[in-house]
Amino acid sequence: MTREYLPGTEIEIIRQVERGKIKHILFDFDGTISLLREGWQGIMAPVCVEMICGSTEPTDQIREEVNVMIDETTGIQTIFQMQRLQEMVRAHGLVPEAEIKSPEAYKEVYNDRLMVPVRERIAAIKSGARTRESFTVKGSLRFLELLSRLDVTMYVFSGTDRDDVRNEASCLGVADYFNEIWGALPSVEEYSKEKIIREIISQHHLEGPQVLAIGDGPVELRNVRDAGGIALGIASDEVNGEGWDESKRDRLLKAGADMLVPDFKEAEQLVEYLFP
């Protein structure tokens, strides 16, 4: 299928939307703005395989099943992914029932491993060894700066634990751009991206095109599309912090993205398009 771009840009237009009405913007955080957690999939996948297989040798089928689960659930709270993991552990039957952990315990194992590189990256920024820009998607800081000059309210809604995402946003120097930074809470009933979208639309009496979701996961894009809002997908190669990740692009297309960009290096053109 032929891709349609805004002339002279890499801003891919999937379908025309009602532009110029946006008042509230919901950002995913990891992989959309922040690269502090780049590589999380490569940490979660071995944890899941290890928990499913126990002392049994892993198979390619199990590895593939784990990769599909991670692909499908990118963007939701980690605890929901761990609930899926528990179901998979039980379904494969390779671990005795008495040794199957709770989703919270699986999450703790995963978080302990993930936070090793995250803390190292934060320390590198604080020491001056690395810049904030080196751990953000290319152009995202400029994009936030441009949006902050407009009459819009911006939020972060992340699947990462709330205290962690607030700390990481502060470390990257972006926390002050947002009216609120939401993240996962201990009780799964208290927070979900779908719940946040519904509440914002209800509280502010918004119509669909007044809400824009920006993210690299299918969950937030699907939620905002279902609510009649606009979905901008970020299909960025997180290893390099810029350029297209084709597998991510395909995933976001299936989730219903209205527009796709590889990063924010064309921030000015993107803002001009969204706010004609």
Structure description:
With 276 residues, the protein is of the alpha/beta class. The protein folds into 2 domains: 12-35 and 136-274, 3-Layer(aba) Sandwich (Rossmann fold), CATH 3.40.50.1000; 40-127, no CATH class. It contains 10 helices and 7 strands. It has helices at 40-53, 60-73, 78-92, 103-127, 140-148, 162-171, 193-203, 218-226, 246-254, 267-274; strands at residues 12-13, 24-27, 153-161, 180-184, 211-215, 230-234, 259-261. Helix 5 packs parallel to helix 10. The mean pLDDT is 94.
Give keywords.
10 helices; 276 residues; 2 domains; alpha/beta; Rossmann fold
CATH architecture of the largest domain: 3-Layer(aba) Sandwich
Gap between N and C termini, in Å?
28 Å
The rough form would be described as globular
Q: Pairing-aware structural class of the strands and helices? A: alpha/beta
Report the major sheet.
Answer: 7 strands, mixed
What is the average per-residue confidence, as pLDDT, rounded to a whole number? 94
The topology string of helices and strands comes to EEHHHHHEHEHEHEHEH
Question: CATH homologous superfamily of the largest domain?
Answer: HAD superfamily/HAD-like
Specify the helix fraction band: 40-55%
Q: Indicate the low-confidence ranges by residue numbers.
A: none
Q: How many DSSP E strands? A: 7
Radius of gyration: 19 Å
Would you kindly provide a brief summary of this structure?
This protein is α/β, with parallel strands linked by helices and 276 residues long.
